[in-house]
Amino acid sequence: MASRKDPVRSTMADLSDRYRLYQLAVQNPRTEIDFVDRTFRQLRGRSARMLREDFCGTAAVCCEWVGRRKRNQARGVDLDADVLAWGRRHNLAVLDAAAQARVALIDGDVREVETPAPDIVLAMNCSYWLLRDRCHLLRYFARVRDALAVGGIFFLDAFGGYDTFRLLSEERRVKDPQSGGFTYIWEQALYEPVTGRLVCHIHFRFDDGSEWPRAFSYDWRLWTLPEIRELLAEAGFSRVMVYWQGWDADGKPDGVFVPVESGEPDAGWIAYLTAEK
């Protein structure tokens, strides 16, 4: 990778914005909110209004939420002041003034923050896996339950499969309206079976041959679905459901998540969970 201090020649990596690349490669706020909004109505028979996005990063999901209905409000919580500032400049700034007023971004710890009681709390992209000790994750889940409004629902996601327990690197081409595209690389760099520690990196490679190695790194615990469900129940949630993704005619994930009591032992899978107060 060319030096970012090179005054003579700037590469695509030098000129790139890692948060923008992450949003293009990893996030799909529209699809995520489609699922959350629809599932809440199915479970509660009404639409939610107040959403809190924990570990919100750039708050792209908060912005998508307030765009759905004029009465929707969102709170985003994250410990990283830099990424919150980026979200204000690049995501909140494109909303009209009325929508911006319905979003509040909070620099704080999701285990300590106080917010108006939300109908929905989200913890997506396996962000809560940063809490690697059982006691810390249980405390977080209990805090979420206490924070939710009556009838509120906690939405999470998880991934797994037998490939999750091995070291690997996967590449995927991502379209980019500015540059034409780039390569997203997901690396599972370390898995420790005694503790469940999982270290992963996101790298980006560009068409001029430059790269941004370890643009993002995660030092997680690989939490399994039985562990997550048991901790949610212990935290006091009344019902916990798992939503499994189906397959299309070509054998590829179809993006449709349905409640299940059992799943398939695939190499890799992604699931949503709901926990009801």
TrEMBL record:
InterPro entries: SAM-dependent_MTases_sf. Signal peptide: none annotated. PANTHER family: EXPRESSED PROTEIN. This is Methyltransferase domain-containing protein. It comes from Thiocapsa roseopersicina.
